[in-house]
Design brief:
D-Maltodextrin-Binding Protein, domain 2, 11 strands, 10 helices, elongated, Arc Repressor Mutant, subunit A
Amino acid sequence: MEPNWDDMKIFLAVAREESLSAAGRLLKLDPATVGRRVARLEQALDAPLFAKSPQGYVLTEAGERLMAHAQKAEEAVRAASGAMAGLAGTLSGQIRIGAPDGCANYLLPQVCARICDANPDLDIQILALPRIINLSRREADMAVTVSAPTAGQLLVQKISDYKLHMVATRNYLESHPPIKTVAGLKGHRMIGYIPDMIFDRELDYLNDLGIERVALASNSVSVQLRQVTLGTGVCVAHDFTLPFHPELRKILTDQVSLTRSFHLVRHQGDQRNERLNRFAEALTRGIREEIARLEAAAAS
Protein backbone atom coordinates (compact mmCIF):
# COMPACT_ATOMS: atom_id res chain seq x y z
CA MET A 1 0.00 0.00 0.00
CA GLU A 2 1.41 3.38 -1.00
CA PRO A 3 1.02 6.40 1.33
CA ASN A 4 -1.66 8.92 0.37
CA TRP A 5 -1.58 12.69 0.76
CA ASP A 6 -3.86 12.68 3.80
CA ASP A 7 -1.42 10.43 5.65
CA MET A 8 1.46 12.66 4.58
CA LYS A 9 -0.33 15.71 6.02
CA ILE A 10 -0.62 13.91 9.35
CA PHE A 11 3.04 12.91 9.20
CA LEU A 12 4.04 16.55 8.60
CA ALA A 13 1.90 17.78 11.49
CA VAL A 14 3.42 15.30 13.95
CA ALA A 15 6.93 16.07 12.71
CA ARG A 16 6.40 19.80 13.22
CA GLU A 17 4.47 19.68 16.48
CA GLU A 18 6.44 16.72 17.93
CA SER A 19 3.31 15.43 19.64
CA LEU A 20 0.19 13.49 18.69
CA SER A 21 -2.08 15.75 20.73
CA ALA A 22 -0.67 18.98 19.27
CA ALA A 23 -0.89 17.55 15.76
CA GLY A 24 -4.45 16.47 16.49
CA ARG A 25 -5.43 19.99 17.56
CA LEU A 26 -3.93 21.38 14.37
CA LEU A 27 -5.73 18.83 12.18
CA LYS A 28 -8.92 18.70 14.27
CA LEU A 29 -8.43 14.96 14.91
CA ASP A 30 -8.20 13.09 18.19
CA PRO A 31 -4.67 11.92 19.16
CA ALA A 32 -5.61 8.24 18.88
CA THR A 33 -6.61 8.73 15.24
CA VAL A 34 -3.37 10.59 14.55
CA GLY A 35 -1.41 7.74 16.13
CA ARG A 36 -3.24 5.12 14.04
CA ARG A 37 -2.61 7.06 10.84
CA VAL A 38 1.08 7.39 11.63
CA ALA A 39 1.26 3.66 12.34
CA ARG A 40 -0.50 2.94 9.03
CA LEU A 41 2.01 5.11 7.19
CA GLU A 42 4.93 3.37 8.90
CA GLN A 43 3.43 0.01 7.93
CA ALA A 44 2.99 1.12 4.32
CA LEU A 45 6.61 2.26 4.16
CA ASP A 46 7.92 -0.61 6.29
CA ALA A 47 10.01 1.80 8.37
CA PRO A 48 9.70 3.55 11.76
CA LEU A 49 9.26 7.29 11.18
CA PHE A 50 9.31 8.54 14.78
CA ALA A 51 11.08 7.70 18.02
CA LYS A 52 9.41 8.64 21.31
CA SER A 53 11.64 10.75 23.56
CA PRO A 54 11.14 12.92 26.67
CA GLN A 55 10.86 15.89 24.29
CA GLY A 56 8.14 14.20 22.23
CA TYR A 57 8.07 12.53 18.83
CA VAL A 58 11.44 12.82 17.08
CA LEU A 59 12.05 11.89 13.45
CA THR A 60 14.11 8.78 12.80
CA GLU A 61 16.54 8.59 9.90
CA ALA A 62 13.75 7.21 7.72
CA GLY A 63 11.47 10.00 8.96
CA GLU A 64 14.05 12.65 8.04
CA ARG A 65 14.26 11.27 4.51
CA LEU A 66 10.48 11.24 4.19
CA MET A 67 10.25 14.77 5.60
CA ALA A 68 12.18 16.23 2.67
CA HIS A 69 9.85 14.56 0.15
CA ALA A 70 6.71 15.40 2.14
CA GLN A 71 7.61 19.09 2.23
CA LYS A 72 8.15 19.12 -1.53
CA ALA A 73 4.80 17.41 -2.02
CA GLU A 74 3.15 19.96 0.27
CA GLU A 75 4.68 22.83 -1.67
CA ALA A 76 3.49 21.31 -4.96
CA VAL A 77 -0.06 20.93 -3.65
CA ARG A 78 -0.07 24.51 -2.32
CA ALA A 79 1.34 25.83 -5.58
CA ALA A 80 -1.28 24.00 -7.64
CA SER A 81 -4.06 25.22 -5.37
CA GLY A 82 -2.72 28.76 -5.45
CA ALA A 83 -2.34 28.75 -9.21
CA MET A 84 -5.96 27.69 -9.67
CA ALA A 85 -7.20 30.21 -7.11
CA GLY A 86 -5.13 32.90 -8.79
CA LEU A 87 -7.15 32.48 -11.99
CA ALA A 88 -10.19 33.92 -10.27
CA GLY A 89 -10.85 37.64 -10.27
CA THR A 90 -10.78 37.86 -6.46
CA LEU A 91 -8.97 35.97 -3.72
CA SER A 92 -10.70 33.39 -1.54
CA GLY A 93 -9.96 30.86 1.18
CA GLN A 94 -7.92 31.50 4.32
CA ILE A 95 -4.56 33.24 4.72
CA ARG A 96 -2.76 33.67 8.04
CA ILE A 97 -0.23 36.45 8.66
CA GLY A 98 2.17 36.51 11.60
CA ALA A 99 3.41 39.88 12.86
CA PRO A 100 4.92 41.61 15.88
CA ASP A 101 2.14 43.16 17.92
CA GLY A 102 2.91 46.79 17.03
CA CYS A 103 2.30 46.04 13.36
CA ALA A 104 -0.53 43.63 14.16
CA ASN A 105 -2.40 46.17 16.30
CA TYR A 106 -1.82 49.44 14.49
CA LEU A 107 -1.32 48.58 10.79
CA LEU A 108 -2.76 45.20 9.85
CA PRO A 109 -6.39 45.70 11.00
CA GLN A 110 -7.09 48.51 8.54
CA VAL A 111 -4.86 47.08 5.78
CA CYS A 112 -6.49 43.65 6.00
CA ALA A 113 -9.98 45.17 6.18
CA ARG A 114 -9.39 46.92 2.86
CA ILE A 115 -8.08 43.71 1.28
CA CYS A 116 -11.17 41.86 2.55
CA ASP A 117 -13.42 44.59 1.12
CA ALA A 118 -11.89 43.92 -2.30
CA ASN A 119 -12.05 40.12 -1.83
CA PRO A 120 -15.32 39.19 -0.04
CA ASP A 121 -14.59 35.44 -0.05
CA LEU A 122 -11.17 35.82 1.58
CA ASP A 123 -10.61 35.06 5.30
CA ILE A 124 -7.54 36.70 6.87
CA GLN A 125 -6.13 35.66 10.24
CA ILE A 126 -3.67 37.93 12.08
CA LEU A 127 -1.32 36.09 14.42
CA ALA A 128 0.08 38.73 16.80
CA LEU A 129 3.02 37.34 18.75
CA PRO A 130 5.89 39.04 20.60
CA ARG A 131 8.34 36.60 19.07
CA ILE A 132 9.57 35.35 15.71
CA ILE A 133 6.89 33.43 13.79
CA ASN A 134 7.99 29.89 12.89
CA LEU A 135 7.15 29.55 9.20
CA SER A 136 8.84 26.15 8.92
CA ARG A 137 6.16 24.79 11.23
CA ARG A 138 3.48 26.48 9.11
CA GLU A 139 2.35 28.72 11.97
CA ALA A 140 1.45 31.20 9.26
CA ASP A 141 1.47 31.55 5.49
CA MET A 142 3.71 34.61 5.73
CA ALA A 143 5.12 36.90 8.39
CA VAL A 144 6.01 40.53 8.88
CA THR A 145 9.37 40.83 10.67
CA VAL A 146 11.66 43.63 11.85
CA SER A 147 14.92 41.92 10.90
CA ALA A 148 15.37 40.15 7.58
CA PRO A 149 16.15 36.47 8.32
CA THR A 150 19.34 35.12 6.81
CA ALA A 151 18.82 31.39 7.43
CA GLY A 152 16.33 28.96 5.97
CA GLN A 153 14.68 28.61 2.58
CA LEU A 154 12.68 31.82 2.69
CA LEU A 155 11.54 34.63 0.42
CA VAL A 156 12.33 37.99 2.02
CA GLN A 157 11.03 41.31 0.73
CA LYS A 158 11.52 44.70 2.36
CA ILE A 159 8.17 46.41 2.90
CA SER A 160 9.02 49.84 4.30
CA ASP A 161 11.06 51.82 6.79
CA TYR A 162 9.28 53.30 9.80
CA LYS A 163 10.27 55.83 12.45
CA LEU A 164 10.22 55.84 16.25
CA HIS A 165 10.59 58.62 18.83
CA MET A 166 10.57 59.10 22.59
CA VAL A 167 7.10 60.06 23.87
CA ALA A 168 5.26 61.00 27.05
CA THR A 169 1.96 62.66 27.91
CA ARG A 170 1.68 66.42 28.31
CA ASN A 171 0.61 65.95 31.93
CA TYR A 172 3.68 63.84 32.67
CA LEU A 173 5.99 66.39 31.06
CA GLU A 174 4.40 69.28 32.96
CA SER A 175 4.61 67.54 36.34
CA HIS A 176 8.18 66.22 36.09
CA PRO A 177 11.62 67.80 35.59
CA PRO A 178 12.29 68.95 32.00
CA ILE A 179 13.86 66.39 29.67
CA LYS A 180 16.56 68.19 27.71
CA THR A 181 19.06 65.41 26.97
CA VAL A 182 19.21 61.64 26.64
CA ALA A 183 21.29 61.54 29.82
CA GLY A 184 18.43 63.31 31.58
CA LEU A 185 16.11 60.38 30.88
CA LYS A 186 17.79 58.47 33.72
CA GLY A 187 15.87 60.61 36.16
CA HIS A 188 12.55 59.49 34.69
CA ARG A 189 10.55 56.28 34.80
CA MET A 190 11.23 54.35 31.60
CA ILE A 191 8.72 52.07 29.89
CA GLY A 192 9.91 49.42 27.45
CA TYR A 193 10.43 45.77 26.65
CA ILE A 194 11.28 43.15 29.25
CA PRO A 195 15.05 43.03 28.64
CA ASP A 196 15.48 39.24 28.59
CA MET A 197 12.42 38.76 26.36
CA ILE A 198 13.49 41.02 23.49
CA PHE A 199 13.24 38.64 20.55
CA ASP A 200 14.92 40.86 17.96
CA ARG A 201 18.07 42.94 18.43
CA GLU A 202 16.44 45.77 16.46
CA LEU A 203 13.93 46.24 19.31
CA ASP A 204 16.54 46.89 22.03
CA TYR A 205 16.04 50.65 21.79
CA LEU A 206 16.65 51.65 25.40
CA ASN A 207 19.88 49.70 25.74
CA ASP A 208 21.17 51.46 22.63
CA LEU A 209 20.44 54.77 24.38
CA GLY A 210 22.44 53.69 27.43
CA ILE A 211 19.35 53.21 29.60
CA GLU A 212 19.77 50.14 31.80
CA ARG A 213 16.71 50.24 34.05
CA VAL A 214 13.19 49.69 32.68
CA ALA A 215 10.81 50.39 35.56
CA LEU A 216 7.63 49.40 33.70
CA ALA A 217 8.24 46.61 31.21
CA SER A 218 6.13 44.45 28.91
CA ASN A 219 6.76 42.20 25.94
CA SER A 220 3.81 43.93 24.23
CA VAL A 221 3.94 47.27 22.41
CA SER A 222 0.25 47.79 23.15
CA VAL A 223 0.80 47.40 26.90
CA GLN A 224 3.76 49.81 26.80
CA LEU A 225 1.66 52.42 25.01
CA ARG A 226 -1.21 51.94 27.42
CA GLN A 227 1.19 52.55 30.30
CA VAL A 228 2.65 55.72 28.80
CA THR A 229 -0.79 57.13 27.95
CA LEU A 230 -1.67 56.84 31.65
CA GLY A 231 1.06 59.39 32.31
CA THR A 232 3.30 56.96 34.15
CA GLY A 233 6.57 57.49 32.27
CA VAL A 234 8.45 57.77 29.00
CA CYS A 235 8.83 55.23 26.20
CA VAL A 236 9.93 54.75 22.61
CA ALA A 237 6.92 54.61 20.28
CA HIS A 238 6.38 53.96 16.59
CA ASP A 239 5.32 57.17 14.85
CA PHE A 240 2.52 55.23 13.14
CA THR A 241 0.90 54.59 16.54
CA LEU A 242 0.74 58.27 17.54
CA PRO A 243 -2.44 59.25 15.65
CA PHE A 244 -4.23 56.66 17.82
CA HIS A 245 -2.86 58.33 20.98
CA PRO A 246 -3.25 62.12 20.57
CA GLU A 247 -2.35 62.66 24.24
CA LEU A 248 1.27 61.66 23.55
CA ARG A 249 3.99 64.18 22.70
CA LYS A 250 7.33 63.53 21.04
CA ILE A 251 10.38 64.58 23.03
CA LEU A 252 14.11 64.88 22.24
CA THR A 253 13.33 64.75 18.53
CA ASP A 254 16.65 66.41 17.72
CA GLN A 255 18.55 63.72 19.66
CA VAL A 256 16.52 60.51 19.36
CA SER A 257 15.05 59.55 16.00
CA LEU A 258 15.14 55.84 15.21
CA THR A 259 14.48 54.11 11.90
CA ARG A 260 13.62 50.44 11.55
CA SER A 261 12.22 48.35 8.69
CA PHE A 262 9.46 45.82 8.16
CA HIS A 263 10.08 42.81 5.91
CA LEU A 264 7.66 40.27 4.48
CA VAL A 265 8.91 36.71 4.87
CA ARG A 266 7.40 33.74 3.03
CA HIS A 267 8.10 30.09 2.34
CA GLN A 268 10.42 29.80 -0.64
CA GLY A 269 8.21 27.04 -2.02
CA ASP A 270 5.30 29.49 -2.26
CA GLN A 271 6.91 31.66 -4.92
CA ARG A 272 4.85 29.84 -7.60
CA ASN A 273 1.62 30.26 -5.64
CA GLU A 274 -0.22 32.95 -7.58
CA ARG A 275 -2.86 33.38 -4.88
CA LEU A 276 -0.28 34.10 -2.19
CA ASN A 277 1.74 36.26 -4.59
CA ARG A 278 -1.28 38.46 -5.21
CA PHE A 279 -2.07 38.68 -1.53
CA ALA A 280 1.55 39.51 -0.64
CA GLU A 281 1.54 42.30 -3.21
CA ALA A 282 -1.66 43.79 -1.77
CA LEU A 283 -0.37 43.42 1.79
CA THR A 284 3.01 45.08 1.21
CA ARG A 285 1.43 47.92 -0.74
CA GLY A 286 -1.20 48.40 1.96
CA ILE A 287 1.32 48.43 4.84
CA ARG A 288 3.58 50.85 2.96
CA GLU A 289 0.70 53.24 2.28
CA GLU A 290 -0.64 52.99 5.85
CA ILE A 291 2.76 53.76 7.40
CA ALA A 292 3.10 56.82 5.14
CA ARG A 293 -0.43 58.02 5.99
CA LEU A 294 -0.06 57.60 9.76
CA GLU A 295 3.45 59.05 9.94
CA ALA A 296 2.27 62.10 7.99
CA ALA A 297 -0.61 62.51 10.45
CA ALA A 298 1.81 62.19 13.38
CA ALA A 299 4.03 64.91 11.92
CA SER A 300 1.20 67.40 11.39
